[in-house]
Write a structure and sequence with these properties.
By secondary structure, the chain is mostly helical. Helix content is about 75%, strand content about 0%.
Length: about 260
């Protein structure tokens, strides 16, 4: 059970990544006036909104509306000169506020790499590559090996569903076959199934395979937007001196 602070942190993270459910969105609206919640949003929220193209368009609209308001105030005949002056000041104030926000957005654009964590899909796209295929053995009459080779051939041609179906039908379910199954699941958008398989492989006595499983398990968490587990696993890989993916893990830590 998460405590209140952890739950609030999760809401902030989902808010920044635009991943709030409807009920979570309502909860954020109720918390928005809370000073502690506002502190958690702090710079990251301002930067995220400022860099949003929609936000910039919104600010441009504010400027235009302010100009229209000022123009209307200048052209409307009225005997109340004080009211006219008030309308003009109101228009100018809106323009100044909007320009100030755009200026802030421009400044934060250059500072954003220091405050914004990248979206999971960007990191996944940069670091994910399918598990490499083995050389297919030809001319073997053993049916199991023939089926295995067919599955790997389908895998290599990116026919992941067909490959997965064959791999699941094999009588022998070796760790390597399980690895291929996990990657097929990832490719088919079934990260939860991939995670379940990879979790059983990360303690395999084959060091190379176990480290590969750890790497793909981390990416599975990323695909599931489970940033807490993703960060924990990536940090562990980065701290493993002889890990196959240590360098890549360190790169990712620099981006999140």
């Amino acid at each position: 059970m998460k405590n209140s602070s952890e739950h609030t942190g999760d809401l902030v993270q989902k808010f920044l990544l635009d991943q709030l459910t409807e009920s979570e969105g309502q909860e954020v609206q109720s918390l928005i006036k809370d000073s502690d919640f506002q502190k958690k949003l702090d710079f990251n929220t301002d930067i995220y909104e400022a860099l949003s193209e929609n936000r910039v368009d919104e600010l441009r609209t504010v400027i235009q509306e302010a100009r229209n308001e000022r123009s209307h105030a200048n052209t409307t005949e009225t005997k109340d000169s004080d009211q006219t002056l008030k309308n003009e000041k109101s228009g100018y104030k809106s323009i100044v506020m909007a320009l100030g926000l755009i200026g802030t957005a421009a400044l934060l654009f250059f500072l954003s790499p220091y405050f914004i964590s990248e979206k999971p899909k960007n990191i996944f796209a940069d670091y994910y590559q399918p598990y490499p295929t083995e050389k297919v053995e030809r001319g073997n009459t053993n049916q199991s090996i023939d089926d295995y080779n067919l599955a790997i051939s389908k895998y290599a041609s990116k026919d992941y569903q067909e490959s997965l179906d064959i791999l699941l039908s094999l009588s022998e379910q070796s760790p390597k076959i399980k690895m291929y199954q996990a990657i097929c699941h990832l490719e088919l958008g079934k990260a939860e199934e991939a995670k379940t398989i990879l979790d059983t492989l990360q303690d395999n006595p084959d060091t190379k395979l176990s480290q590969q499983a750890e790497w793909y398990l981390s990416l599975s968490y990323l695909k599931l937007n489970d940033m807490n587990n993703f960060k924990d696993h990536i940090k562990g890989i980065a701290e493993s001196k002889y890990h196959l993916y240590q360098a890549k893990a360190k790169e990712i830590l620099g981006r999140i």
